[in-house]
Structure formats: structure tokens, C-alpha cells
Fold this sequence. Notes:
By secondary structure, the protein is of the alpha/beta class. The chain has 11 helices and 12 strands. It has 2 domains: 115 residues, Leucine Dehydrogenase, chain A, domain 1 (Rossmann fold, 3-Layer(aba) Sandwich); 170 residues, Rossmann fold. Helix content is 43%, strand content 17%. The relative contact order is 0.13.
Amino acid sequence: MQITPINKDGYEQVARCQDEETGLLAFIAVHNTTLGPALGGMRLWPYESEQAALTDVLRLSRGMTFKSAVARTGLGGGKAVIVANRDMKSPALFEAMGRFVDSFDGQYITAEDVNVGVPDLMSVKRYTRWVTGLPISEGGSGNPSPYTARGCFVGLLAACREAFGSEDLTGKVIALQGPGCVGFDLGRQCVEAGAKLIVCDINQDSLDRAVSELGATVVEPDAIYDVECDVYAPCALGATLNDDTIPRLTAKAVAGAANNQLLDENRHAAMLAKRGIVYAPDYVINAGGIINVSLELEEGGYDEVRALKKIDNIHEAMLEIFATAKAKRITTHDAAQAVAEANLLAATQTA
């Protein structure tokens, strides 16, 4: 196994790992540990190049810093990405990833993310103790996806209050991109609250399930930006809010689970605001999962009741961000950023 440090301005640690025996090619980035060790998920994706993977891990780890700061988890921001497709997954691959995670000496703590599940984390755990989101039988909190979805749902309700003056979803149309683990559960809660669902995905199984269990209407992936809807809920990969898509949106609110939804944070947050579209900042609305697993690391261990209470506070946090943005005439992205930066600054002043 060869681990190569990479120097990146603004990041505490970045490294590339290649293990010829298992076929592992991965990157880990630790953005900031001012508030505590960096916690962030492990993503497996068939990136088109190493540079694309590195760019993604840098963006994601930075987002985790702000997510943890706003959610007050007492943790920093980090992320891991594995360059592979799903049919390359194996226990040996994830065991090698465990050795890579362990090389950070506890400064990076991992969890599940796209294409990485609890069984994979169990393989990681054989070589490092810095793993969260393990089964309850193993002392963990289990799959974080339902908790991420819960936070997204209460955040979506807050966005609807801001956009429509009411949290009543009866008859509202939600255009949901990516009804996978988190997206499906978010869609389910919306449908149970009276909403109608339009979905797109590249995974046919996810689409079939959304149709059969949620009564969803399916459109082609690129058509999701053009459908008549009230809320656009991006729940797949990031950067779907950009120069091409924002002018096409008919939604009055954007509220979804995806990370890094804005291709260019400042430019595209401003474009949404100019169009009068309420944007729920991604690292605030999707913090439920990280809030849940972070409680595994607190003294006394995991407590689901306490976790759910903290996750439900995302609703109030979103309303405060909307109010701040309106009062200061700034974007909701800038309002969320100000909260995160204030919490990071407070930590440095009391250290």
C-alpha cells in the first residue's frame, strides 16, 4: 500500500492511497479540525479521472466542516472517496481502506456514503476503530440514511413555509432527483403528508420502487429540471444547480439531501435568490445523518431520543437562516456560511 500526502491550501491533511493487491485507489481529505476530529462519509464512485475524485473529496470535506459547525456536533470536516464502480467492491478492498483511514490516527472518522453500506464498514472496522454508523449490535447507531431523510423532511417543511406561507404539503408536487436510500425515505414522508412525487434516477430499481410504493411519476434525468413542480429536491450527486438548470426550474423552493448542490456557491445561490427561489442550504438540511452518528462519539454513547431531538432542530435552524437572509438581504447560502464561520471563530477564541 502506498499513501502519498498531497498539499492543498486551506486543508489540514489530504492523501492519496493506492493498493495494487486489492485494487484500491482512494483519497481522504481533512479540511478542518478546529471543533474536533473530522467526521465524514466514505463514497465509492466511478470517477472519470483521479483529478475528478480529488476535486470531489475536497469539496465534500469542506462542506462537512460547515455542516458540523452549523449542527454543533463538536466535530470537524473530512471525507473519503474510493475510485471504483460497485462491482469492484470486496471485503479486501474495504479492509485496505480501513488501513488507509487508520493512518490518519483518529483525525479522520469515517461513515457510510454513496455506494458504501454497513457491511462495507464492518470490513473497514477490522483495521481501524475510527468508524461510525455501525450496526446497533456492534455499539453503533445503525444506518444513518433515515435520520438524514428526517432532517431533510423537516427542512423541506421550513422551506415551504418560507416559499408558500404554509407547511401543508397537500397537493404540492415534489420533483425528487435520486430516490435512493435517503431520497426514497424523503419522498415517502412527503407523500404521506399529501404531496405528489415526480422522480428521476439512473437506477431502474430505485425508480420501480418509487413507482410501486409511492405512486411516483418517472421522467428522464434531464427532464426533472423542466417539470411543473413546487419543490425541487436534489438527492443524488452534487452541482445540479448551475447556469443551465436554474433558469429551467419552475419550483419555488429547493430542498434536498444532495451535498454540494450549487456548482458555484456564490454565483448560483445568487441566481436562485434573483429568481425568487427559496434555497435550503445543503449542509444544513442534510445534517441529520452526521448529527446521528456524531452522538456515538459523545460521553455515554448513542441515544436515539437525543439524536431525533437534535435532528428536528434543523427545522428551526432553517427558519433562522431564512430570516437572517431576508433581514440582511443576503443569500441563504451566505446566511448559513455566517453561522458556520461564527461557530468556528468562537471555538478558536475559547481554545
